[in-house]
From TrEMBL:
Residues 13-67 form the HTH cro/C1-type domain. Transmembrane segments: none annotated. PROSITE patterns: HTH_CROC1 (PS50943). The lineage of its organism: Bacteria, Pseudomonadati, Pseudomonadota, Gammaproteobacteria, Alteromonadales. This is HTH cro/C1-type domain-containing protein. It comes from the Bacteria. Pfam families: HTH_3 (PF01381). It comes from Shewanella inventionis.
Length: 79
């Protein structure tokens, strides 16, 4: 389940970033995270801390909720 959440979070992050027309490189610079880290998170290879979610949401000018995967979809995958 943990991996599924990371993958779905990464998809939502990439979607929101592209929606805002921001490159990974630009997001990484604005957040103070490495470009490699942003890529890893978007691919779902690593879970992200809640603190970093808040930083990214602020940069993307969206709510944290906009980046969090739908819990029903996550739970359906597990059952």
């Amino acid at each position: 389940m943990k991996k599924k959440i990371a993958i779905e979070f990464g998809k939502k992050l990439a979607e929101k970033r592209k929606e805002k027309d921001i490159l990974q490189k630009d997001l990484s610079q604005q957040c103070g995270f490495s470009l490699n880290y942003i890529g890893i998170v978007e691919r779902g290879e690593k879970s992200i801390s809640l603190e970093k979610v808040y930083v990214i949401a602020a940069i993307l000018e969206c709510s944290v909720h906009d980046l969090i995967p739908d819990e029903k979809a996550i739970l359906l995958e597990v059952e």
